Amino acid sequence: MSAKFYTLLTDIGAAKLASAAALGVPLKITHMAVGSGGGALPTPNAQQTALVTEERRAALNMLYIDPQNSSQIIAEQVIPENEGGWWIREVGLFDETGALIAVGNCPESYKPKLAEGSGRTQTVRMVLITSSTDNITLKIDPAVVLATRKYVDDKVLELKVYVDDLMAKHLAAVDPHSQYAPKDSPTLTGTPKAPTAVAGNNSMQLANTAFVQAAILALIGGAPATLDTLKEIAAAINNDPNFSTTINNALALKAPLASPALTGTPTAPTAAQTVNNTQIATTAFVKAAIAGLVGSSPEALDTLNELAAALGNDPNFATTVMNALAGKQPLDATLTNLSGKSVSALLQYLGLEKAFLIKGQYLPASVNLNALGGDDAFGIYGQEVAASATSGKNYPEQDAGTLLVLPAAYNGLQVYLTTGGHIWIRVSLDKTNTKWSPWYPQLTQTDLNNGLATKVNISAVGTAASRDVGTGSGQVPDMSSWSYSGIDRGWRKGPDGFIVQWGYDAAASGGASGSGTTVNLPIAFANKMVSISAVFDNGSPVVPAAAASPINSSSFKLRCSESTGTFNFRWIAIGY
Prior knowledge:
By secondary structure, this protein is α+β, with helices and mostly antiparallel strands.
């Protein structure tokens, strides 16, 4: 019949015992756990790492070698009466790291707790068979465990046997108290001690070192350690039996504290320059005070005689200087007003604040191009991040480039030059920066070169091969449909009628309200002038603003912001 109840080492326990035997480091089994097995009697398994249903884990009460079998180690745990309320069907031993070393099952036993109306203290034992008990540390913590009655009785009996044996040996000894001195003429060793007698005691009581030291201290009256013997005092007075006479003769050579008449070269500590009391002033203090009086003047002016000579020996020097100043021209009010002004304030005072409009700055991603219009925005800006040039900020395309904000009708003209070589132009349509024309792409040499380099596959153009050449409806335009004329003043016309014109003209002054100068276009637009703008082009240090506005399809009005003079402007017009 196979065993129903048994205990076995787990794989972890077997490995740890083997390691303990190989390395010589004993295994420390410290805790025992009991469990209910999940409601049924479990079968121990060497691969287990925990009980099926652990109910209680606590430190071992005892861990000892079986007196009847030296190959067996008995682990014992006591469960007090106030713990329970569950069945005990499984037990396990754990080492100091919490690893399950051994596991076993046992006959089912219900452990009540006192609160249920019935309580008992229950002892649970596990027997662990090992080839060498040296591989297991047999040690428990007596502060955290309960002891069985048998364990206590065994310890009491063991202690009684030890005490009886010790007392028998003591009584049988010839001199059991050899550590004690006899009362009659004892010879003490080591560092014997006795109570300290009261100061002034004069009896047969033992005097210890504290009593003697106190008596000597009272004798010398608290003298320092270097003068607490007659020899030290004699040495202190230079072994002079006439010490008093010697001292009095020496004092006769000293100056009194009251009104002393010093001779030779007496010295004293130099006071700080801030001191102002009865302390003696040394020559160093006086020299420093004089240096402070003349304010660290140069050597040529560090005496009153030199200062008087520097003032022309004039006792009324201040009056002389004031009379001389009275004959001078007062400081000009204009120069006073300009004193301390910043560069921008000086330019504004001189009316030149519009002469320096090149911004030379990069546009952050948050700037909307619709906001860059008017006098304060004219200039050149850079956009170095292509991702920031979004349509949401009203850029013509998402590419890094340079933005020119130039004076023109309403709030100006914007030209955007991309790093990819594209040119875009648009104009302001009101004074509030809320209305702008669409961005118009400008034809570049690259566009022309790319167009000329494109080869047309005739088989892929459908009916284009059967159409007539011309500019009419349904016709294919030839290169003569692209017309061009002029250099400084000229125009370019596409086959769809789109025309770009440019020029270089002078505009008379007169300000924004003046009559301006009428400029005739090289050719008239067939339908409408869409955009016209002008920028200053002159070497003059004055940078006037220009305004260009259409008159009709063949001319426009060019005005200059300056009130006098004539200035040259370059202009560009777009239409169809």
